[in-house]
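Intended use. Records like the one below are meant for learning the mapping from a protein sequence to its folded structure. Do not use them to infer anything beyond what is encoded.
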Amino acid sequence: MVADDARVGELRRRKAQAIAGGGQARVSAQHSKGKLTARERLDLLLDDGSFMEIDPLVEHRCRDFDMDRNVIPGDGVVCGHGTIGGRTVYCFAQDFTVYGGSLGEMHGLKICKVLDMALKTGSPVIGLNDSGGARIQEGVASLGSYAEIFFRNVRASGVIPQISVIMGPCAGGAVYSPAITDFVIMVDGTSHMFITGPEVIKTVTNEEVTFEDLGGSVTHATKSGVTHFTAEDDEGALDLVRDLIEMLPSNNLQRAPILPTNDSLDRSCEKLQDLVPENPKEPYDIVMAIEETVDDGAFLEVQAEFAMNIVVGFARLGGHTIGVVANQPNFLAGCLDIDASVKAARFVRFCDSFNIPLLTFVDVPGFLPGASQEWGGIIRHGAKLLYAYAEATVPKLTVITRKAYGGAYDVMSSKHIRGDYNVAWPSAQLAVMGAEGAVQIIHRRRINSSGNPEQERERLVDDYVDTFANPYRAASLGYLDDVIQPSETRKVMAKALGALLEKEEVRPARKHGNIPL
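Structure written out for the chain above:
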């Protein structure tokens, strides 16, 4: 009996050591920075009492640089599974109080086990990142574990949702795992991501830049587009994860959970009747069209501060999760540029991977002109969005609210790249280009030879507007399935979605396509 008591005592001691992490002093230091500990974060993320830890007693095997004198069970990462809204998720949380959250061989292999189990069970995986990077004392063994994680991220891509939450530093090779995952959430003021830090940059290029300007949440939300959501604090970031998980299916063989709504599918969207201004050059906020159409006006926008000329995000229609893509006339007149094309293409491909229908609102005057766009590869990047829409086999619903000009009309889920149900409002204009530019090209000689060039130009513009500044030519050719009143948008889209939920579309067998990356 005494021996048994001793064994139980030893087990408790080891478990307590794992739970204690780096000790109270380091826990207090973590709290002083406005950051929660790894275990506190998991407690907030998961349903109460649902977390089951995996590998709490794993230890590193490094015996160099006196590491054999500093062995803490768990090796700086807390791994396991639990539930969110009653649905199983797998997760890991790096513990900055243990070796600065640095990733060594065993630390990395613990994460690999979580990824393997998530893939086997078809469950989402959530990574809470707070790490000083590769554990230098372990050398190539640390790098090897990083690569093992990257490989699993790629293998799981499009099979299970992967969400990365950056809750502290994430530098060097460590950034590539979040970059491969589906969504990145950063915490304002405490999280940073970069390949090389300010000191290295100053040494190599003589540039001086702060941590925040180089890789803070604002930088990645507005300039690089690396992050999809920004939260004010740890609690807000974890709430975002829960909201996101509730919108998504657990894997690519399932559909997202249906959330019953009291918002009538027959509700008239009266606010949309006068949304589009009479002046075709006047902007308006397309988010109003989205919120009026979807259930309860609830719209979870993704990358809201990046490439703001296009809006993407999740909502529900008739209780079903949908992905929404919309040109935003409030910014750059809704033109497609490099960043907008890449932002929307990535989102469309995610939705297609996880059986999430797409609703597209179109008001696009074309691709953004300019030498910087051409030199930056707008041809290649714009083709990504075209490719993504053409590749997608989920139900695709399209509403043209105003302008649909040129190649951008084709790209934005047009009937020609297999939009399933395409409608337009009476204010829609489907044409190669705007009236003034078209008349200047088509009738240049007539205008110049006229006795009153300005009057003749105005007359020809009016003729062009009468012919093309409406949706009826496209409807007569079958390029639109209907022309509807704006107030009917919710009712019509909900009925179309209901009819398309069982859609199946077979494509030629292939290993994978060659998207113009």
